[in-house]
């Protein structure tokens, strides 16, 4: 088994109303998405990390996704974008981690890895990420743009399975959630977002 670990910051946005009902709010279990179909984009900025001796610090990963609560098993359809600044070994390592191929945290916290899924593709892309708390943004080439407007005021503790319910985070409003990579194509504003940190490994 490959040995790997990644830590860093996390930011996502989806088409649910804030606070996203999929999350745990005040420790209460989440439920169905607001509209029954979830459309989203997720980003990870790796601050430190490695996989079998391959250094992964300072690289980014972005995922665009769609799933329906009413489809049996609610499988995720997704594109994974890995940082084109990485060399081939780094891009392959990130792809293997985030698709769940290397096991570990992914098989507990990434729904597209532990549930049925439709992988639409893995692409190298020009990834830009700024996870400034409360006003972050990220891009993956021409395919994805997310910008945060502001935090949701007076919120209870909110957690997300992807960064982990054992970690604190904060719910936000997204100024822009734009994905344009067929068949995933949507352009939204005023929807929910979430920021946190992550610590993933093969030991989980």
How would you characterize the overall build of this protein?
By secondary structure, this protein is mainly beta. It has one domain (4-201). 9% of the residues lie in helices and 50% in strands. Strands 1, 3, 4, 5, 6, 7, 8, 9, 10, 12, 13 and 14 form a twelve-stranded mixed β-sheet that branches. A two-stranded antiparallel ribbon has the order 2-11. It is globular and about 45 Å long. The protein starts with a strand and ends with a strand.
Offer a few descriptive terms.
204 residues; mainly beta; twelve-stranded mixed β-sheet; two-stranded antiparallel sheet; 3 helices; 14 strands; 9% helix
List the helices and strands and how they pair.
Layout: E1 4-14, E2 24-25, E3 37-51, E4 54-55, E5 60-68, E6 76-83, H1 88-98, H2 106-109, H3 111-114, E7 117-125, E8 127-130, E9 137-140, E10 144-151, E11 158-159, E12 169-181, E13 184-188, E14 191-201
Parallel strand pairs: 6-7
Antiparallel strand pairs: 1-3, 1-14, 2-11, 3-4, 3-5, 5-6, 8-9, 9-10, 10-12, 12-13, 12-14
């Amino acid at each position: 088994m490959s040995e790997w670990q990644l830590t860093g910051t996390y930011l996502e946005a989806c088409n649910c109303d804030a606070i996203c009902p999929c999350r745990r709010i005040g420790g209460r279990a989440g439920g169905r998405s607001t509209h029954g179909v979830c459309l989203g984009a997720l980003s990870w900025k790796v601050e430190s990390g490695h996989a079998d001796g391959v250094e992964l610090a300072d690289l980014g990963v972005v995922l665009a996704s769609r799933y329906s609560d009413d489809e049996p098993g609610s499988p995720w359809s997704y594109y994974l974008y890995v940082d084109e600044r990485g060399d081939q070994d780094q891009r392959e390592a990130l792809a293997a981690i985030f698709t769940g191929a290397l096991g570990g945290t992914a098989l507990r916290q990434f729904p597209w890895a532990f549930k049925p899924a439709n992988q639409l593709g893995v692409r190298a892309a020009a990834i830009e990420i700024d996870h400034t708390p409360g006003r972050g943004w990220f891009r993956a080439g021409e395919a994805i743009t997310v910008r945060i407007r502001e935090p949701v005021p007076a919120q209870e503790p909110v957690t997300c399975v992807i960064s982990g319910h054992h970690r604190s985070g904060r719910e936000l409003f997204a100024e822009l959630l734009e994905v344009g990579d067929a068949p995933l194509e949507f352009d939204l504003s005023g929807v929910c977002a979430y920021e946190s940190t992550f610590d993933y490994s093969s030991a989980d």
